[in-house]
Design goal:
The chain is α/β, with parallel strands linked by helices. The chain is built from nine helices and seven strands, in the order βαβαβαβαβααβαααβ. A seven-stranded parallel β-sheet has the order 3-2-1-4-5-6-7, sandwiched between helices.
Length: about 240
C-alpha cells in the first residue's frame, strides 16, 4: 500500500477505524472521515502511520465535495475509496415514518453515491482506482425491522455492480463486502436474546471482529485483486450460504 492514498468514510470507530488502521500499517496514507469529530480525533491519536482526519457528512453533497477537494489539494490523488459510513434505525414497517426511511437511505445509499461521484473523476484520469462498498448480509436476505436498512444495502449492491460495469474500462474495480454480525457500537446495543438468536445461525459459532472485514477490504484495495470487480463478498461466519 506504499504510495497509495485511501479515503474511508465513517471511520472514526468500528469497521471503518479497523480498515483505516490496517491500511495505515500497510503503508498507505489514510484519510479517515466521519461526522463525529471528537471520535475522529481519538481515532487518529490511537493509530500509527500516516493518518489524517476530515470531518465529513456523506449525506451532504457540499461537505463531500469540500473534503474531497481538500484531500486532492493536499495529496493530489485518491487511489482507494471505502464507502463504509452507515447507520441503522430499526422499526417494524407499520411504525416506520418517512423520516426514518429517508435518513437511513440518505446516509447509507445516497452517501455512497455522493462520495463515489466526487472521487471517481480523479480515478478515471489516473486510470486506477479501488472502490470497496460496505453493504450487509441484510441487503441479500432482508430482516424484519430493517426494511429501510435492507433497502439501502441492497441498493449499494446494485450500485456496486453498475459502477463496476461503468468503470472497468478505466481500470477501476468496484466491489462490495457484506458483513454479517460484527462486534461494534452498531451491534453492542442489541438485546442479549437477539444476539443469542443470531449465534444459532452462524455456523462458525462466533460473532465477527472488525479485522475480519478489514483484511478482505485490504485485499480488495490492493493490486493483487486487479481481476475482481462487481462482486459481493460475505464476511459472516457462514450465516448466508
Ligand atoms: P459504527 O456505528 O461503529 O460506525 C459507523 C460510523 O459511521 C460512526 O463513526 C458514525 O459517526 C459514522 N457516520 C454515521 N453517519 C455518518 C454520516 N452521515 N457521514 C459520515 N459518517 C457517518 O458501525 P459499524 O458497525 O462500524 O458499521 C460500519 C459499516 O458496516 C456500516 O455501513 C454498517 O451498515 C456496516 N455493517 C455493519 C455490521 C455490523 O454487524 N456491525 C454488519 C453489516 C454491515
Amino acid at each position: 500500500m506504499e504510495g497509495k492514498n485511501a479515503l474511508i468514510t465513517g471511520a472514526a470507530r468500528g469497521i471503518g477505524a479497523g480498515v483505516a488502521a490496517l491500511f495505515a500499517r500497510q503503508g498507505a496514507r489514510v484519510y479517515i472521515s466521519d461526522v463525529d469529530a471528537d471520535a475522529g480525533a481519538k481515532a487518529i491519536a490511537d493509530t500509527d502511520g500516516d493518518i489524517r482526519f476530515m470531518e465529513m457528512d456523506v449525506s451532504d453533497e457540499n461537505s463531500v465535495k469540500q473534503v474531497v477537494d481538500q484531500i486532492l489539494d493536499e495529496s493530489q490523488k485518491i487511489d482507494i475509496l471505502v464507502n463504509n459510513a452507515g447507520i441503522t434505525n430499526d422499526k417494524l414497517l407499520l411504525r416506520m415514518t418517512t423520516e426514518d426511511w429517508s435518513r437511513v437511505l440518505s446516509i447509507n445509499l445516497t452517501g455512497t453515491f455522493l462520495v463515489t461521484k466526487a472521487v471517481m473523476r480523479g480515478m478515471i484520469k489516473q486510470r486506477f482506482g479501488r472502490i470497496v462498498n460496505i453493504a450487509s448480509v441484510v441487503g441479500l436476505i432482508g430482516n424484519a425491522g430493517q426494511a429501510n436498512y435492507a433497502a439501502s444495502k441492497a441498493g449499494i449492491i446494485g450500485f456496486t455492480k453498475s459502477c463496476a460495469k461503468e468503470l472497468a474500462g478505466r481500470n477501476i474495480t468496484v466491489n462490495a463486502i457484506a458483513p454479517g454480525f460484527i462486534e461494534t457500537r452498531m451491534t453492542e446495543g442489541l438485546p442479549e436474546e437477539v444476539k443469542q438468536e443470531y449465534l444459532k445461525v452462524i455456523p462458525l459459532g462466533r460473532f465477527g471482529q472488525v479485522d475480519d472485514v478489514a483484511h478482505l477490504a485490504l485485499f480488495l484495495a490492493s493490486d493483487q485483486s486487479s481481476y475482481i470487480t462487481g462482486q459481493v463478498f460475505c464476511v459472516d461466519g457462514g450465516m448466508v450460504m
